[in-house]
Each structure stands twice: as C-alpha cells, then as structure tokens.
Write a structure and sequence with these properties.
single chain; mainly alpha; about 280 residues; two-stranded antiparallel ribbon
Length: about 280
C-alpha cells in the first residue's frame, strides 16, 4: 500500500488562492500606511515635487492657443514618476524588509501560496497608485488650475498606459527586491536607482534635453515610455513635434510596456525566492 503525501499548499485550489490574495490587500494597505516614511517618500513625494516645481517655475510653454502652463508641463512627468515609485520602490523596499526580518520565512512555513502573497502586493500597489495619482491630479486642478482633457479617447489612453506601466514597474520592483543584501541596506540600493531612472526618463527634465548618447541609452527605460504616453494625454497634439521622433508613438509605447512586462515577469520569477524548503 502506498501513501501519497501532499503539502499544505497542495490543498489550496485556484479559487481559494485568489480569494486569500484579495483578502490580503487590506492587510498590505494597513501595513503600507502605518509606515510614515514610506507614505512620505513614496505616496506623497510626487505631489510634493509637483508643488515645488509648479510654484518655483511660472509662465507658459509654447505660443498661441496651444500654450500650456508650467504646472501642466510637469504633470505628465510626475504622474510617470508616481507610477515608478508605487510600482518599483514600494514593493522593492517592502519585500526586501520582509525577507530580512523573517516574514517571508514564516509565510513559507504556512500553506500560503506565493501567488496569494503577490496578489496582495499587487493589489496594494494598484490602490495606492490610484490614490496617489488622483491626489496629484486634484492638486493640479484645484491649486494650479490645470485643464484636464475632455476627450474620452485621451482618458482611455491614460488608463492603459497607467495599467501597463504599473504592472511593468511592479514586476521590476519585485525583481529589484532581491538585490539588497539586507533590509537595512534596501533603501540605499533602491532609492538611488529610482531617482536615476526618473532623471533619465524625462520626469524632471525634458527627455530631449539629454545628450543624444544618453537618450539612446535611456530610451528603452519603461518610465520614458510611460511619461511619453502621459504627455500624449495632457499636452496639445502640436507638442508631439517636441518628442525625439516628432510623434507620440502610441503604438510603440504599448509594445515597449508589454515587452517590459515580459522582462519583469521573467526577472521576478528568476530572482524571487519563496522561503520554503519542502520542494
């Protein structure tokens, strides 16, 4: 007579795995907002930087009816920066800390599936990113009188750029969490990477202002394409001539973000180690 042994995880079907993952989202959100430093440097940071730039720099860019204010000019870049912070910096720091303090090891001793764990993380990222961008846009409209698009197609483009960009950044954040050697060193590793990517992607300065060789090197970064997609939403169509290609390249934006989702999925799968030794 043979006896088949099953691990506790094997008793979890797909439906229960998904259900438990959704139930983890409120828990992850509570943990997120209880960390004051994380709320400041990840959640509020794009809005604070936007207020700083929109207050210091005044005037209009462009001429005639298509001229836009400085506050409008910085909005797409800071939205892209917020997506980067929510998707990369947040999960990278959280997972690195949970790996260091033994949380992942304890979870690995339970029937909890890695899928359940990451559904909770991704749900947290999406909720916080939506709230973060909503706050940023609200400040832009209420304080700086930024005029939002009235075209439904523009908001549809906003939605898919936001979703694809956030998924790509979140997967890359999961992969980046494996780089710090400890939770204490995670901020020193992750934050400089995130800041560098923002400057190279046109978040704080125009991408076309970078040297040509740097444009070529940084042109593959996902945040560059997120920022370009957001500019196509909030800028008049005449501003597409200021892009390096002279066009918004909407189709290429979708392709590049999908490529980065695949890259992020592969990297996160190769680098993340669920602390479980029963396989």
């Amino acid at each position: 007579m043979t006896t088949t042994t099953t691990t506790p995880q094997a008793r979890f079907g797909l439906a229960r795995t998904l259900r438990l993952g959704v139930r983890r989202v409120p828990f992850e959100l509570r943990q997120y907002f209880r960390a004051g430093d994380q709320v400041f440097f990840t959640f509020l940071f794009p809005t604070l930087m936007y207020v700083l730039f929109a207050t210091i720099f005044t005037g209009d860019i462009g001429e005639g009816p298509d001229a836009i204010s400085i506050a409008t000019y910085y909005l797409p870049g800071l939205i892209a920066g917020g997506i980067l912070l929510s998707g990369v910096q947040g999960p990278a720091l959280e997972i690195a800390a949970e790996k260091s303090d033994g949380t992942l090891k304890r979870l690995g001793g339970t029937p909890l599936s890695p899928v359940t764990y990451f559904i909770g993380k991704i749900g947290e990222v999406f909720v916080t990113a939506i709230l973060q961008i909503a706050l940023l846009i609200a400040v832009a409209v209420v304080v700086y009188r930024v005029e939002l698009p009235t075209d439904a197609a523009a908001w549809g483009r906003f939605a898919w750029v936001f979703v694809l960009g956030l998924i790509a950044c979140t997967l890359l954040g999961i992969a980046l969490s494996s780089v710090p050697r400890s939770g204490k060193s995670s901020a020193a590793v992750v934050i400089p990477v995130v800041l560098l990517v923002q400057f190279l992607s046109g978040v704080y300065i125009a991408f076309s202002a970078l040297p040509e060789w740097l444009q070529n090197a940084a042109g593959i970064l996902p945040v560059k394409w997120i920022a370009q997609g957001m500019r196509s939403v909030f800028f008049p169509d005449s501003f597409r001539a200021a892009e390096t290609s002279g066009s918004w390249e909407v189709g290429l934006i979708a392709v590049m973000l999908l490529v980065w989702i695949v890259v992020g999925l592969v990297l996160s799968r190769l680098t993340f180690r669920w602390i479980r030794r029963d396989r």
